[in-house]
Amino acid sequence: MKKLLFVITFICTLTIQAQDNSEFKAQTIEFIKLTGAGDAFDNAIEQIGAMVPEDKKEAYTKEAIGTLDGLYSKMADLYMEEFTKEEIAQLVTFYESDLGKKLASKQASLTQSGMMIGQTWGMELTQIASKYKK
Predict the structure, then answer these.
(1) Model's pTM, two decimal places?
(2) What is the pLDDT of residue 14?
(3) CA angle 10, 12, 15 (to 5 degrees)
(4) What percent of the chain clears pLDDT 90, i.e. is strictly above it?
(5) Inter-axis angle of helices 2-34 and 85-96, nearest 10
(6) So what's the pLDDT on residue 9?
(7) Collapsed DSSP state (helix, strand, coil) of residue 97
(8) pLDDT band of 12, cuts 50, 70, 90
(9) What are the DSSP calls for 25-92, one per residue?
């Protein structure tokens, strides 16, 4: 009888943890979408699809969109390793605010501009380093 009670308790605990984890994952996916990643993924599908012939574009787009759930799941796993459920909840709250929405809408262009600044800086450092190679 004790073994049966232990097994039932164990199964209930696993079920509760799995449900809690799925809620955490769903909220993490919501956070990822709020950051503007969805727009970036849509743009990538469109840009890569530019090489697909027009008569096959609809099938390509449907199949490409079908990969998004897996991508969001993997991205969520990555974020869930770094952030707690409470932290993700705070991030969702932030990205639902006006400031968070503004950040999400500007993030792609800021990242691109930042990469250009970083490349210029890297070239500057290369010139400095080359002075000291001699």
Answers:
(1) 0.70
(2) 43
(3) 110
(4) 69
(5) 30
(6) 55
(7) coil
(8) very low
(9) HHHHHHHHHHTTHHHHHHHHHHHHHTTS-GGGHHHHHHHHHHTHHHHHHHHHHHHHHHS-HHHHHHHH
State how far the Cα of 32 lies from the Cα of 74, in Å rounded to an integer.
11
Structure tokens at 27: 């909220």
CA distances from 43 to 17, 72, 99, 108, 118 (A): 36, 15, 23, 11, 23
User: 93's torsion region: left (phi>0), alpha (psi -120 to 50) or beta?
Assistant: alpha
- Count CB neighbours of 27 within 10 A: 17
Question: 92 pLDDT band (50/70/90 cuts)?
Answer: very high
Query: How sure is the predictor about 108, in pLDDT bands with cuts at 50, 70 and 90?
Result: confident
Residue 98 and residue 81: Cα distance in Å, rounded? Answer: 27
Interatomic CA distance for residues 117 and 73, integer angstroms: 32
Using alpha carbons, select from 62, 51, 44 the residue that is nearest to residue 108. 44
Angle at 31 between CA 30 and CA 37, to 5 degrees: 95
